[in-house]
Amino acid sequence: MSGQHTPGPWWTTGSGVRDRGGYICHTNPAQRYEGQDDRFAKETAERAANKLLIAAAPHLLEATEAYLQAQDALDNRELQGPNAEDYCVLLRRRNAARDDLDAAISKAISGFSLTAQQLIDSHRTGDAALGSVAKAVGSTS
């Protein structure tokens, strides 16, 4: 594969994940069928979680690469000889990279929690609750 991914930041919307130039991916809303309220709620929550993970992908990649580079610098310090950076500087750089990686992971998995009944009610009332959730989730970028 010779292409590169679309640069971040990416954010979620009610219908998918996008960047400044347009949509990265679209997600169709879960279909609600009579008597399948639990399935509807589960699919809706799962699709929202998937959108969060997709939107966080550029930050996760960048943070992981920075952490691995900082850890490699610490691991290879002895091989660098007398011109090696001070250990404390390398340790601070690695710890800062780890904090950024933790933040990226938190962003990817920090969803929202709605009960099945809240999802069903929002569907019946014109999606007002889900609209609020979409705004909140979209603002996590």
Helix-strand layout with pairing:
Elements: E1 11-13, E2 16-19, E3 22-26, H1 37-75, H2 87-109, H3 116-124, H4 128-138
Antiparallel strand pairs: 1-2, 2-3
Helix pairs in contact: 1-2, 1-3
Describe the structure.
The protein is built from four helices and three strands, in the order βββαααα. The protein is mainly α and 141 residues long. α1 (37-75) packs antiparallel against α2. The radius of gyration is 20 Å and the shape is elongated.
Average residue pLDDT: 74
Largest sheet entry: 3 strands, antiparallel
Strand tally is 3
The low-confidence runs, each spanning 5 or more residues with pLDDT under 50, are 112-120, 125-141
Fraction in helix: 55-70%
Number of helices: 4
Strand order of the largest sheet: 1-2-3
- SSE order: EEEHHHH
User: How large, in whole angstroms, is the Cα Rg?
Assistant: 20 Å
Which structural class do you get from the secondary structure elements?
mainly alpha
Distance between the termini: 28 Å
Strand percentage: 5-15%
Overall outline: elongated
